Amino acid sequence: MKLGIKITLSVALLSSLSFGGEQFAMSDADRAMYAEMSENNPADILIADGEELLGYMGGDAGLAKYLGVSEDDLPAYIAGFPRYIKKFNMVVGLDQVVQAMMHDGGHKPLKLKSGNMFAILSYIKSIANGEPINIDVDANPQMKAMYALGEKTFMTKRGGRGLSCNSCHSKDIVGSVLRTQPLPDLSNKGVAVAATWPAYRMTKSSLRTLQRRFQGCMKNALLKVIPIGSPEMVALEVYLTKKAEGTEIAIPGLKR
Ligand code: HEC
Asked: Closest ligand 1 atom, CA of 218?
């Protein structure tokens, strides 16, 4: 009996030590739920909905045709978004491609912020699962300009508290804890955050996209929220996707 108690105590001690600052971020119950959900990500069913919705537009084959690539090349092509697309004369995300496809097919395009759009976008990105991110920010002047705009948007201080994305997501501050949440370092090369979005957010009980996540930070940090699909948002996605270059896409992610 005595032995049992000793073991329980040392396990508790060990886990609180080994997680360091992160012990504040998740309770044991949350950690158990995280482990359970990693096995069985609730977003999988939403992604299946996304596949069905894309099916109304010709599925993978329809998408490949619309993008002017073969179905075999589709995964690698998807792993290079956001991209400059000549027929739009713009750098766009995959959700904007879907809107254009809907429009051209005579359908009313889904809103970029709608749950169905998040589902379709997530399904499409999951086609590239296992594919290394291959964004080329030097491919053309448009991509170069978007990368520069993304960096500027990331670094520019705004809002009532004069914060930039970098104020909370730079190397200098990594490991610090804000209101019990450890700050993830997004400024670092090799940070693969873009490979794990869209993701299921446990605290929101829903499937979210990268740009939707940016909006969450803008709201929390009192920065004016920029609309999804606007040049600054696509540029931020370009900027952070570049940092994840070479990382294999693994959709859906699972986040706190
Ligand atoms: C006031 C500090 C603060 C500011 C400013 C801020 N963030 Fe965050 N951000 C956080 C915290 C804290 C988390 C982690 C929250 C969590 O785990 O729930 C986070 C998480 C993220 C994530 C998810 C990381 C992951 O692990 O997938 C992204 C992406 C992100 N922020 C982007 C941005 C962008 C882009 C901006 C600027 C528009 C920004 N953030 C501004 C504090 C901030």
From this structure: 38
Rounded distance from Cα 71 to ligand 1 centre (Å):
35
Determine phi and psi for 42, rounding to 5 degrees: -60, -20
Measure 22 CA to ligand 1 centroid, in angstroms: 16
Beta strands 253-255; 199-201: pairing state: parallel
- Domains of the chain in start order, with CATH, are 43-127 (1.10.760), 141-255 (1.10.760.10)
Reported as a single tens digit per residue, the pLDDT across 123-178 is 999 999 999 999 999 999 999 999 999 999 999 999 989 999 999 988 776 656 66
Whole-number Å distance between alpha carbons of 106 and 95: 17
Asked if 101 contacts 94 with a C-beta cutoff of 8 angstroms, the reply is: no
Cβ atoms within 10 A of the Cβ of 218, count?
A: 18
Q: What are 66-84's pLDDT values in tens digits?
A: 999 999 999 999 999 999 9
Helix (H, G, I), strand (E, B), or coil: what is residue 227? coil
Its pTM stands at 0.87
* CA separation for the pair 215, 139 (Å, rounded): 28
Pairing of strands 206-208, 199-201: antiparallel
Phi then psi dihedrals of residue 255, to 5 deg: -125, 160
Residue 6 Cα to ligand 1 middle (Å): 40
- Which two tokens mark 230? 């606007």
DSSP assignments along 72-130, one per residue: TTHHHHHTT-SEEEGGGTEEE-HHHHHHHHHHHTTSPPPPTTSHHHHHHHHHHHHHTTT
